[in-house]
Amino acid sequence: MKLDTKALRYLTAEDWRVLTAVEMGSKNHEVVPTPLIAQIAGLRGGSGIHKSISSLAKANLIARLKNAKYDGYRLTYGGLDYLALHTHTKKSTLYSVGNQIGVGKESDIFAVASPKGVQHVLKIHRLGRISFRTVKANRDYLRHRNSASWMYMSRLAALKEYTFMKALRENGFVVPEPIAHNRHTIVMELVDAFPLRQIVEVPDPAGLYAELMEMIVKLASVGLIHGDFNEFNILIKEEPDAGLETNDTPKTSEALENELRTDSKTDILDRSSGRLLTPVLIDFPQMVSISHTNAEMYFTRDVDCIKRFFSRRFGFTSDNPGPFFSDAKKLVGRKGVRRLDVEVEASGFSKKMAKELESYMQAVGVDGDGGEGATRDDESSMEDSEDLDEEGEEDPVAGELQEPEAANLPNNT
Hints:
Number of strands: 16
Shape: elongated
Distance between the termini: 25 Å
Helix content: 25-40%
Order of helices and strands: HEHHEEHEEEHHHEEEEHEEEHEEHHHHHE
């Protein structure tokens, strides 16, 4: 599903009312009957409602379902995108959308700007994408899913990520600052950092390794396990430190290639001094409570991911076999430490929501956006959607990704 904001500025107040009506009607109807759309939108029948429906359908914000038994429309991911962007604009969270800067297994990342010109990140959750790539293994799960339910899952993923990110940030964890959340989207701080997976050399692998392991244990002490703690979900940020005499500038693969081309033999410790590496943790839809049935498995997997990466990339292997789940669990709630897993549940992300989202992730084999498969293969997505169409089903998110030109978002309705 591509994000194309060109039609945003041309939608009328009536168009927004109709689009919102389709969204509201989707709660109880896979295909919302046209008369119900008009009723919810508060528009009388005639040319007005049909003109808005035509404009929205032309922009791929709503769509008809093949072989439907009655005249009606369903909300598309594009329509959900527009509704979220419209809300962010009205709340003065966003002013413009720039290029796509990242893609996860089931999310798209865009650079955006606030009305004051401050750059932020917009993360759009698109659950349903991976499930159609692994469709042959998930027929039973998919058979009972329609586009509306995928959007509901995307909303849950965004709500969970925003809620956990906010709790972690407020309790001293180094994560991007969450700015706003609406529907299946999150606006967050743009962190000037390198993904750990792009870094091929660091001055002190042992120090960085120890800091990451400490972060895993610290998460456990507040009752949380990341569940996808690896090089794809850790950013390395450079910060000035007057007391640091050595260079802690990480070397990316691109920088190393440039160095090799110019035959530069300068050691990275001599390039600049007074820089401190700070790991920043991202991607939280798969985070679980330490009370989870499989908590020990997730904790051990997080630890093993870091061990394997440091051994493979930096040639570093720690003499310490830990940390171990049994030891980390003893720290939970000690010395008055707050249980964030309990607080998050109390804040609105309920056990029922967590169970629904976890069932989805287990069914389609998704454990967050990190991993070797965290790229979008449009061709395979389209092939999978064709397989579904043969059985009379549809792919709600099929389509190509395209980097949109920077576009201002209208703030009028």
